Amino acid sequence: MTSVPVEGTRPSDAERDRALAVLRDGAGSGRLSHDTFIRRMNFVLRAQSRGELADAIRDLPRSEPRQGWTRNLRGRLPRLKVESSASPNARTGAHQPRPAQVARRAPRFDPVGVVASWLDALPRFSFVRQPTAVPLPALALPAPGTSTVRIGRGPGATLRLADVSVSRFHAELRHVDDGWMVRDLGSMNGTCVNDLRITTTARVRPGDRVSFGAVAYVLTWTD
């Protein structure tokens, strides 16, 4: 069996692609015109042997393989010696224990905690229960035609009040034509009608609150 020359063997697809790449480079660099590139490309596609491929690109420079180009570039660059800053154990290959890594978990949403923080941020209100008001004792207004009622701590008072806040001659209460009048007699702690202190005389009626010093009454009709 006779051996076939290398130029006479059928080209592979990879060899045909490399030949087409050389033609494209030649057209891109201006070495081949457009018509020449089309004609040679058709020739490469119909080539039946490696020799025909070589004839199609014989007058064109062939680009170096990428691996060879990088190898040449690597050989031209100066080699740098990089010293590691690792510990002696790392350079010698000794095993170094690694610190335990703590897994960090994303904080979980806690609706109860959020509501509690909102409640803590709210201003505090304190509710004070007011003491139940004690009803005042009743003081009957003098009937029409009766004498004036004198209020005080002294022995000559009609309504005698044994309280240190009441003066000896504190006030007087009398009936007039169209109602009742109360008059302060210059007492030390004063006379008040509906929480307002009077200086001389004030008109009163049933339901008013009258206080002589610290002693208070509510005025009522005469029985």
From TrEMBL:
The keyword Phosphoprotein applies. Residues 63-103 are annotated as: Disordered. The keyword Nuclease does not apply. Keywords: Phosphoprotein. Residues 94-103 have a biased composition (Low complexity). Residues 149-198 form the FHA domain. InterPro entries: Cell_Proc_Reg/RNA_Proc (IPR050923), DUF1707_SHOCT-like (IPR012551), FHA_dom (IPR000253), SMAD_FHA_dom_sf (IPR008984). This is Uncharacterized protein DUF1707. It comes from Kribbella kalugense.
